[in-house]
Design brief:
44% helix, 6 strands, 252 residues, 8 helices
Length: 252
């Protein structure tokens, strides 16, 4: 089974929005996990289509998935774009319903419940969180119109999948998942601290020091479940490279 994760985290001062998504290729299935959350934006009309490094800007999810900047407000193109994505991805997961999404993923891949247990990682500590005002939220929805359309569309598709799966059945599976999540958390984690207080963290340029860092039991499974995304991704790449070399006889 090959696994490829892509997780760009967008944040650049007051002129950008923080949006994250993960694209997973699992056992031939394409799964898109949309983490739809945005940070405060102060952006004028004249530079609304400006992209830092020609890559980072508004409607980041839609842009990364192939939508042209000129089509950000084109209703017809957006409709065709979402339909095309719906045909390409077997499952789209939404963070507000992450446990329900994980159960659908488990069912899709015929996995065990422990295979979709996750911890809350790389989350900004509560003391550093700034709540968005209703006016800012409305502004963000307007600025990120294409992403809002994308989000709304796939939230409806997820609701349909939940209905087809069976709400009562799903509810029972979600309860089971949360019990297993609590089990693994209690087994693996013996405390929390701020990442900013972690020794040597200044050497890691890709982490936010304001997030919570879990204190983890020295156990191989626990360490893997709480590793930094980029570090874990690199571990997977190295493992896949060794497996490819082993099965192809190419040891170069």
């Amino acid at each position: 089974m090959s696994t490829d994760l892509l997780m760009p985290v967008m944040k650049r001062g007051k002129h950008t929005y923080r949006q994250t998504w993960i694209l997973l290729f699992l056992a031939g299935l394409s799964v898109l996990l949309i983490l739809f959350f945005v940070n405060v934006v102060n952006i004028s009309e004249e530079n609304s289509d400006m992209r830092f490094g020609d890559k980072i800007g508004r409607n980041q999810m839609s842009f990364d998935l192939g939508l042209e900047v000129k089509d950000f407000e084109n209703v017809s193109v957006l409709r065709d774009f979402t339909v095309k994505l719906n045909e390409e991805f077997d499952l789209v997961m939404i963070t507000e319903q992450i446990d329900e999404s994980l159960i659908l993923l488990q069912n899709l891949l015929c996995w065990e419940i422990d295979d979709v247990v996750t911890f809350k990682l790389n989350a900004r500590n509560e003391k550093f969180i700034k709540r968005l005002t209703p006016s800012v939220r409305l502004r963000l929805q307007k600025v990120n119109y294409a992403d809002q359309v994308l989000y709304n569309f796939f939230k409806e598709r997820l609701a349909e999948k939940i209905q087809n799966f069976g709400r009562a059945k799903l509810g029972a599976k979600v309860k089971e998942l949360r019990i297993r999540k609590d089990f693994w958390y209690n087994f693996c984690v013996h405390g929390e601290t701020l990442l900013i207080n972690t020794k040597g963290i200044e050497k890691l340029a890709y982490v936010n020091p304001k997030v919570t860092k879990l204190k983890v039991r020295k156990n191989d499974t626990c360490i893997k479940m709480t590793e930094y995304e980029l570090t874990f991704t690199e571990m997977l790449r190295l493992k896949q490279k060794h497996l490819v070399s082993y099965y192809t006889g190419n040891n170069s």
